[in-house]
Amino acid sequence: MSDETDATRASDVAFIKALAELLDQNDLTEIQVKREYGENDWLNVRVARGGVMMQAPVAYAPAPATHVAPVATASSAPVSDPAQAPGAVTSPMVGTIYLQSEPGTKPFVSVGDQVVEGQTLLIVEAMKTMNQIPAPRAGTVKRILVEDGAPVEYGAPLMIIE
């Protein structure tokens, strides 16, 4: 391995750490940057609260993919991943969350509500289309993990139904 490749890797690691710090300092949920070194030689980095994903061409032999720990803040307490909860309802798409049909109206559901399978829980707006998210099963709404008007990623936990 050349000294240039080692220097590039060290620079990439420092770059990712700097992005993680920027994410934390500015209370962001995600940063994505493409760093170009030359033709067919680039690094695409997406740093999100859940971790880091990197893509790079095979211009140099990349090290095995490693998972960078999620950014932690001093106020964050260790919590289990809500997406792994047995009753987690996850987002089927990227979009914006709406907890009620119109601003100022009653939310579709609240914590403690009993829901039936197929009942609308919330709406995800994607590409100017309002997509109703139905309850996958009957149960009680234990937690609502999103805020009205918040952006959401595919697979992000929205609420817990038990």
Topology record:
Blueprint lengths: L2 H23 L4 E9 L2 E8 L2 E5 L32 E3 L4 E4 L15 E2 L4 E7 L2 E6 L4 E6 L6 E2 L4 E5 L1
Antiparallel strand pairs: 1-2, 2-3, 4-11, 5-7, 5-10, 6-9, 7-8, 9-11
Note down, in words, how this protein is organized.
With 162 residues, the protein is of the alpha+beta class. It folds into 2 domains: 1-76; 82-161, RNA polymerase II/Efflux pump adaptor protein, barrel-sandwich hybrid domain (OB fold (Dihydrolipoamide Acetyltransferase, E2P)). Helix content is 14%, strand content 35%. The protein has one helix at 3-25, and strands at residues 30-38, 41-48, 51-55, 88-90, 95-98, 114-115, 120-126, 129-134, 139-144, 151-152, 157-161. The strands form 3 sheets. A 4-stranded antiparallel β-sheet has the order 4-11-9-6, with no helix packed on it.
Could you provide a short overview of the structure?
The chain has 162 residues and is α+β, with helices and mostly antiparallel strands. It has one helix at residues 3-25; strands at 30-38, 41-48, 51-55, 88-90, 95-98, 114-115, 120-126, 129-134, 139-144, 151-152, 157-161.
